[in-house]
Amino acid sequence: MNIFLRELKANLKSLLIWSFIIVLLILIAVFKFSAFAGDPEMLKILDSMPPAVMDAMNMNAFNLTTLIGFYGIMFLYFGLMGAFAAAMWGSDIISKEERDKTVEFSLVLPVSRSRVVTAKALAALVNCIAFDLITWGFSVVAVQSYKPDQAFYDFLALEMQAMFMMELIFLAIGLMLGCVLKKYKSSGSTATGIILATYFMSVIASMNENFEFLKHFTPFHYYDAGNLFRSGQLNTTYLGVSVAIIVAALIAAYWVYNKRDLYI
Amino acid sequence: MSVIEVSHLTKFYGKSRGIVDVSFNVEEGEIFGFIGPNGAGKSTTIRLLLSLIHPTSGTGKVFGLDVTKHGPEIRRSIGYLPSEVFYYEGMKVIDLLKYSASFYEGNFTERMKYLSELMELEMNRRISDLSFGNKKKVGIVQGLLHNPKLLFLDEPTSGLDPLMQRKFFDLIREENKRGVTVFFSSHILGEVQRLCNRVGIIREGSMVEISDIRSLQQNNYKKISVTASGLTPEFFDTPGVTNVQTENGSVNFFFKGDINAMVQKVSSLKLDDVTIEEPTLEEIFMHYYE
Fold this sequence. Notes:
The complex is a heterodimer.
Chain A: H1 2-36, H2 40-47, H3 51-56, H4 67-99, H5 103-106, H6 113-142, H7 150-180, H8 184-207, H9 219-222, H10 225-231, H11 236-259
Helix pairs in contact in A: 1-4, 1-6, 4-6, 4-7, 4-8, 6-7, 7-8, 7-11
Chain B: E1 2-13, E2 16-27, E3 31-35, H1 42-49, E4 57-62, E5 65-66, H2 71-75, E6 78-81, H3 93-101, H4 109-118, H5 132-144, E7 150-154, H6 162-177, E8 181-186, H7 189-195, E9 198-203, E10 206-212, H8 213-218, E11 222-228, E12 241-247, E13 250-255, H9 259-267, E14 271-277, H10 281-289
Parallel strand pairs in B: 3-8, 3-9, 6-7, 7-8
Antiparallel strand pairs in B: 1-2, 1-4, 4-5, 9-10, 11-13, 11-14, 12-13
């Protein structure tokens, strides 16, 4: 409990910064939305854009002049932000002890390494939940002037569940990298690399049919806003795959961290 | 009873050597000195015993328990002062000490007060604002706070001023009197000699010698330098004298034997200057290489 509470406190600043960024993003986006909300001229301009761009931005699925369509496009940013924040929290919370050389204190305390990982993972999880709820809550506040209907609230709820799943996946991957990689410097950059690689995989998969198979390997496709909108629910198969990824990453994290030498 | 039992302990970091086939025991209630130059494997040995790193082969036992399997259990009764102290920078000294104490069973408020007053800690300062020496003082209090039965001290005096060093040594002696076993690693022979009952000497990853501090001293060379007019190296051509060299008009040599005889011999000269000092560690190791 003491490790968990200390980590919560230590990570509060980071949570506030990320929350500030996402609040700012929503503010700016909603402000921009006011320019083309319900404007038929805007639709024509959008329709004249090259199809590849439309695919990459996932604009085919959505009518950008409606609030739901607009939030469908916004999900891309929510997913990316959630992934980055979660991966950073996950990898940093483990690797910072080696970076700051505090392992010679924190792991000489009478605690097992598993207990340390569990407490830290829970603290990072709280951050992820808070980040998701802040995104959700502020979205509701920000769009009030457009008088959203129930359909919008339902879709927003679905998006936030999807964002949470993406946070969980990348939190688990971040934790694994922090636990497994002995070089503390590489865990953060590797996490960033994985996020960007999987994101571009999903972009390529949607743009080129020859690479469509790639979509099975990227969480950005598992929780594609267009699919969410069409089906109105999370894809059960991909939910299963997500859980498998999370469990595998966590097993690797605990297993290796218990065995490896700490970098001092 | 042996508090620490190390048997054929070997650690390689990839291909580079940590320690090779190190074996020794530390008995309950003793102060065991562990000396060797930098990079000899002192910290590696301690970190193996704290299960921060895991052995390549061999075993280490503390309180009769294997260090790789029972780490958390063992560490309940261990205090550790690393050579360089690193704590969470943003925390205040008092909060860090309370945080540390929260992991052990018992109430340590009184002891925290006693130790921090003794070490003259400023409890409300942030860790990040502390100098190297002051961090070390926090390390001493944190390491001793929970009444550990076994203390690992890794180059504990670096960064402490002489006054604090003396206070620290008194504190360690006091703890030892209460039955605390101390594992004292250092590269300064003098402080080990002052404090320890037995010493192990480690060089390039291997234990060269484990001996009683007295026999080590008797075996020990003194480094003597004499400056006097008309002095020739032949004057010191007596048993026990080795390695005679002349430098800038003074004669330097190592002496092993009855120091009284040597002092009498030197006193027959009309001296300009004389120094008798401890040989450096390296010079002692030369002895173990012969």
